[in-house]
Design brief:
With 715 residues, the chain is mainly α. Helices cover 82% and strands 0% of the residues. The longest helix is centred in the N-terminal third of the chain and has 87 residues, at 88-174. The termini are far apart.
């Protein structure tokens, strides 16, 4: 039970609160309070946006006051609960007191709110009045800056898309009939960067939202960057975009097929060409007809490369029959290209008359057409026809056609036609050389060199180098060795630093040809020094032509060392050559290794004769010679030179019973037999003569006489 003292305290508090209530109510009239509240609310609403932050701060303060009021209510509630345990009357009194107290707290709450809002409004209004102009200027500036940035960004993206589309259109023109410009140059680098920049912008778009153009752009970016696998993947995705047009899909399939071909995936390339042809062959839309014709043309070329010549010709005929009457420039070009390709295939099949007839038809049909592509094709047809006439030994007709080509296109500055004119001059000079018109040949080489010497086009630089080389060769044939060597030196000095594979080969060939001239002039030391330079320069080059030249240089150097009676050095070089190239499957190198074995065997034979008085050493040399010559004949069984040398070794080994038939076979051999072998053997017998040579000479003379008597008469 509570103590009497506590009860008395409670009663005093209740009485005090009851007395205070009328005074509070008297100070604040309810109607006045409502009117003030409405007025204040209207004023606050008018400045809400500018004063929002300040109002929020004031509300935080009011929240704190609410919490304090709640605490007071709780305390009063606790007192009420304690009084309720004594009497019901005191409970009702405490409840009444609590209600009255809460009402008084609310009156105080609204008074504080009104005052706070009044102060906040006045402060905000004053601040806004003072800073209004500055704020509005800043807001306008921010709006303008934001608008400029947005416009700039939009324009930048639009410009990037436009630039990328221009690059795509340029590149698309290079993805044509079996040709594409993939050579590195500044324009290619710039175009690649443009497409890659656009690709970076596309990364902000989810791939499932990509349009055809988006996938196409990524495909071209990958293509220009040399990422062909990615390019084919993106073009495949482009064809699957539901909104892609038929023309766009066909173009993407063609690009994908062509790129697969560049990757060496010929079978997959043909499958896609077939897909394109089967899907769109019956569509008469001009752009689709062009795609189908291009696919047919490319497939025909591929079939020709695969030696499926009959299928290639049949497809060319189908293309020509289908589109021959179409006047669309693109299709006219494709029909003309199909005729040209068919003629080339007929030439491969050695059907020269049919080939020439088709070239004539092409020339007659398009000779007056000014379209660059058709002008190029007509000139190429004239050039090819002239080459075929040369193969048929119709040299006068070939030269007449070269003259016509040169006269027709000499003033044309188009790179393709400049190349064809230069090639025609070169081919005409070669033909004059075949006809042994050396002076005219050299004069034409001089004209070609003077005309194109300063041209930096790779094809023309190569042609000029070949003209210099051929002129030097012709001068050599005319025994003008000094002039020939001077020309080789000019070629080497001009192109020595050029890294182009074709020109590296020209320089190496010039060095080799110069050694031949030095040998003719008996300048063996200079000859060997140049062999050493050639070998050191190109020994590590894996290009087949250069590997062959290095091997030939080693072989010729060994032969020259033998002539200088440095047979031990020669044999060491032969061994090096055999070790280096013995496993090479290239026909030219296989034959060179065989000849090297013959050279090594012959060097051992000469060492045996030179050391004949040392019978054991001589026998060793002859045994080694026999092994090398037998190794040679395994590679070239019917080579007269090796057969003759083996017969000589067997004679010196004291096995005359095998010699007669062996040398008879050597004379009858198709390569290096007959008179060449007979005269060569006499020269060999004369070196380091020994008594045994007398009997061998008698045998050789007798077999040679028999061989001459048994040969069919030429009359």
């Amino acid at each position: 039970m509570p103590s009497p003292l506590n009860f008395v305290r409670l009663m005093i508090i209740s009485f005090s609160l009851t007395c205070a209530l009328p005074s509070v109510a008297a100070e604040i009239n309810k109607d006045d309070l409502d009117a003030q509240k409405e007025l204040l609310q209207l004023r606050i609403d008018s400045g809400r946006e500018l004063l929002q932050k300040d109002i929020e701060a004031q509300w935080k303060r009011l929240d704190a006051i609410d919490k304090r009021i709640d605490d007071q209510v709780n305390r009063v509630s606790d007192i009420g609960n304690a009084v309720d345990r004594f009497t019901a009357i005191s409970g009702w009194i405490s409840i009444l007191i609590t209600v009255l107290l809460a009402s008084g707290g609310l009156v105080g709450y609204f008074s504080v709110v009104a005052k706070a809002k009044r102060e906040a409004k006045e402060t905000a209004s004053n601040w806004f009045a003072e800073n209004e102009k500055e704020l509005r200027a800043k807001i306008d500036s921010l709006h303008s800056h934001a608008r400029d940035n947005i416009n700039h960004s939009v324009q930048s993206v639009q410009d990037s898309a436009t630039e990328a589309q221009a690059v795509i259109e340029r590149t698309q023109k290079t993805i044509g009939l079996m040709q594409s410009d993939t050579s590195p140059n500044p324009d290619n680098d710039k175009d690649t960067k443009t497409l890659l920049r656009r690709t970076d912008e596309l990364k902000d778009i989810p791939e499932n939202n990509y349009s055809f153009d988006d996938w196409n752009t990524r495909a071209f970016a990958a293509y220009k960057a040399g990422k062909l696998e990615e390019a084919t993947l993106y073009w495949e995705k482009a064809t699957k975009v539901p909104t892609a047009s038929l023309v766009n899909s066909a173009q993407a399939i063609f690009n994908q097929a062509f790129t697969l071909g560049q990757m060496g995936k010929t079978e997959e390339e043909i499958v896609l060409y077939d897909q394109l042809i089967d899907t769109y062959a019956d569509d008469n839309t001009p752009a689709l007809r062009e795609q189908v014709a291009k696919a047919m043309g490319n497939k025909a070329v591929l079939l020709g490369e695969m030696e499926k010549n009959e299928e290639a010709i049949a497809l060319c005929d189908q293309l020509i029959a289908t589109y021959a009457d179409d006047k669309t420039p693109a299709l006219r070009n494709l029909v003309a290209q199909a005729r040209f390709n068919k003629a080339v295939t007929l030439g491969k099949m050695e059907k020269n008359e049919e080939e020439i007839a088709l070239y004539d038809q092409l020339i007659a049909t398009y000779a007056d057409d000014k379209t660059p592509a058709l002008r190029n094709l007509v000139a190429q047809a004239m050039s090819n026809k002239a080459v075929t006439l040369g193969k048929m030994e119709k040299n006068e007709e070939a030269i007449a056609l070269y003259n016509q080509l040169i006269a027709t296109y000499a003033d044309d500055k188009t790179p393709a036609l400049r190349n064809l004119v230069a090639q025609a001059m070169f081919n005409k000079a070669v033909t004059l050389g075949k006809m042994e018109k050396n002076e005219e040949e050299i004069a034409l080489y001089d004209q070609l060199i003077a005309t194109y010497a300063d041209d930096k086009t790779p094809a023309l630089r190569e042609l000029v180098a070949k003209a210099i080389s051929n002129k030097a060769v012709t001068l050599g044939k005319m025994e003008k060795n000094e002039e020939a060597i001077a020309l080789y030196d000019q070629l080497i000095a001009t192109y020595a630093d050029d890294k182009t594979p074709a020109l590296r080969e020209q320089v190496a060939q010039a060095m080799f040809n110069k050694t031949v001239r030095l040998r003719k002039m008996e300048k063996k030391e200079e000859e060997i020094a140049l062999y050493d330079q050639l070998i050191a320069t190109y020994a590590d080059d894996k290009t087949p032509a250069l590997r062959e030249l290095v091997a030939k240089a080693m072989s010729n150097k060994a032969v020259t060392l033998g002539k200088m009676e440095k047979n031990e050095e020669a044999i060491a070089l032969y061994d090096q050559l055999i070790a280096t190239y013995a496993d090479d499957k290239t026909p030219a190198l296989r034959e060179l290794v065989a000849k090297t074995m013959n050279g090594k065997g012959f060097s051992h034979l000469l060492l045996a004769k030179k050391n004949w008085t040392n019978r054991d050493l001589a026998l060793d040399y002859l045994t080694w010679a026999k092994e090398s010559l037998q190794g040679c004949l395994k590679r070239k069984p019917q080579w007269g030179m090796a057969l003759g040398n083996l017969a000589y070794v067997q004679w010196l080994l004291g096995k005359p019973q095998a010699v007669e038939q062996a040398f008879h076979n050597a004379l009858a051999a198709g390569e290096n037999g007959g008179e060449m072998l007979y005269k060569g053997t006499l020269d060999d017998i004369a070196q380091h003569s020994i008594p045994e040579d007398i009997g061998f000479r008698e045998l050789v003379d007798r077999l040679w006489a028999e061989y001459q008597g048994n040969r069919p008469s030429n009359t």
